[in-house]
Specification:
Strand content: 5-15%
Number of strands: 6
Largest sheet: 6 strands, parallel
Strand order of the largest sheet: 3-2-1-4-5-6
CATH architecture: 3-Layer(aba) Sandwich
Mean pLDDT: 93
Shape: globular
Number of helices: 8
CATH topology: Rossmann fold
Distance between the termini: 48 Å
CATH superfamily: HUPs
Structural class: alpha/beta
């Protein structure tokens, strides 16, 4: 059975930080594939600066096209309503052994998600601490999430994976601000994505 990393997010816009993380996890965890899943309506994200789902999907397709083990799914674009991860994992369960790639802040917020215990049953959690953050897997907050989800501790062969990945100092908010101000996006994302943003006037003030 293939091992598949599920990398969901708004990708608003996708950048080299996303791609570096996916490549590193693909190699370190011996994943056969990383499936990028742009959210149509992210339930935890404000819509103020969100490019349309179609634009974000197309930028993600452009960004990953030269990586042999990367793919993009439009599954959340084809589904109406908020993009709940549990629904996506149910729809993808026949793709292989699923690994859900999430940041440590997201992990600590999992109990607010729809059907978090089911999420944890459908996919192995791969938790990536934020660079410079203070995530402690032994702290009460992290232990509460593990307990509520019915999961073994980090480090257990059947438990979630804790992986300290390399990161780049790139943020979506900075990229959107640069696009709005007509500034350079070079060396922060694939040129094909930067060209798409310029062509469609994304993130410019209306």
């Amino acid at each position: 059975m293939p091992t598949v990393g599920i990398f969901g997010g708004s990708f608003n816009p996708i950048h080299f930080g996303h791609l570096l993380l996916a490549d590193e996890l693909c190699e370190a965890l011996h994943l056969d594939r990383v499936l990028f899943v742009p959210a149509a309506v992210p339930p935890h994200k404000p819509a103020a600066e969100l490019a349309s789902a179609e634009h974000r999907y197309r930028m993600t397709v452009l960004a990953i096209r030269e990586h042999a083990r990367f793919a993009v799914s439009d599954i959340e674009l084809r589904r109406e309503g908020p993009s709940y991860t549990v629904d996506t994992l149910v729809a993808l369960k026949d793709e292989g052994a699923l690994h859900l790639l999430i940041g440590s802040d997201t992990f600590l917020d999992l109990l607010s998600w729809r059907e978090p215990r089911r999420v944890a049953r459908l996919a192995r959690l791969v938790v990536v601490p934020r660079t410079g953050g203070d995530f402690d897997p032994e702290a009460p907050a992290a232990q509460k999430v593990l307990h509520e989800l019915g999961l073994p501790p980090f480090g257990d062969v059947a438990g979630p994976v804790l992986y300290h990945a390399a990161s780049l100092p790139i943020s979506g908010s900075d990229l959107r601000r640069r696009a709005r101000e007509g500034r350079s996006l070079a060396f922060r994302m694939p040129e094909s994505v930067a060209a798409y943003i310029r062509e469609h006037g994304l993130y410019r003030a209306s």
